[in-house]
C-alpha cells in the first residue's frame, strides 16, 4: 500500500469513528497489524497512530525489534486466543492482553509476568459455540477467582460479535457487554476496575462505537485491499 492510500484509509476510519461517537468522545483505535509488516506500521505511526494489535508472538517480537528505534512508544495489544505454553515468550513485552478467556491462562500469566498485566476478560455474549470466553453469568465468579492474582489487572471486558450478525443483533450484543462492564465497575474491585470495553472490528466498529466501546480492533478496514 502506498503512503497516500494508507493515509486515506486511516483518515476514513477516524472520521467514521468520530461521526458515530456518543457526544464526540471517540474510543481508542487499535490498528490490527497482524497481516502487515513493520513498514506499514511505521507509516501509520508517522500519521499519529499509537496503538497496534498482534496475535502471534513471533511476529510481535520481530516487529517490536524492527521498530524499536523509529517507533519506540507504540502501545502493543495482544489479541486473539493465547496458548498457555506461549505466555512466557511475550507476556512482559505487551501493554494489553485482550483475550483472558480461561482460568489456566490466568494462572500462567501470574507465574510468568514480572509486573501487573492489563487484561480484558473475554465474554462470549453471543453464545456462539465456536467462541471461547466466559459466559455473561460467569463474569463475576471469574473476577472473584482472580482476587489473589496480583499480576492481573482486569481493565475491562472484551467480546467478538458473530461475523454474520445483523445490525440489531450487534446493538444488542454490544449493549449487553456495556451493561455488564458497568456492573463490574460499580462493584469496585481493586484488581478489576473494569473501566474499558474492547469491542468492534472492521465490519462493526461503528456500531460498537455507538454502544460505548473504548477500544476498537480494526484491521482490514485499514490494511486490506480495496473491495475487501
Describe this structure in words.
The chain is α/β, with parallel strands linked by helices and 228 residues long. It is 39% helix and 17% strand. It contains nine helices and eight strands. Strands 7-6-5-4-3-2-1-8 form an eight-stranded parallel beta sheet. Strand 1 (28-32), helix 2 and strand 2 form a beta-alpha-beta unit. The longest helix is centred in the last third of the chain and has 21 residues, at 167-187. The two termini are 14 Å apart.
List keywords for this structure.
8-stranded parallel beta sheet, globular, 39% helix, 228 residues, alpha/beta, single chain
Number of strands: 8
Looking across the biggest beta sheet, what order are the strands in? 7-6-5-4-3-2-1-8
Strand portion, in percent? 15-25%
- Figure out the total of helices: 9
* Uncertain stretches of 5 or more adjacent residues: none
Fraction of residues in helix: 25-40%
The H-and-E topology, N to C, reads as HEHEHEHEHEHEHEHEH
Give the overall shape, derived from the CA principal axes.
Answer: globular
Query: What class do helices, strands and sheet pairing give?
Result: alpha/beta
Main beta sheet strand tally, sense and closure? 8 strands, parallel
Alpha-carbon Rg, integer: 17 Å
Write down the overall mean pLDDT: 95
**Between the first and last Cα atoms, what is the distance in angstroms?**
14 Å
- Work out the oligomeric state of the chains in this entry: single chain
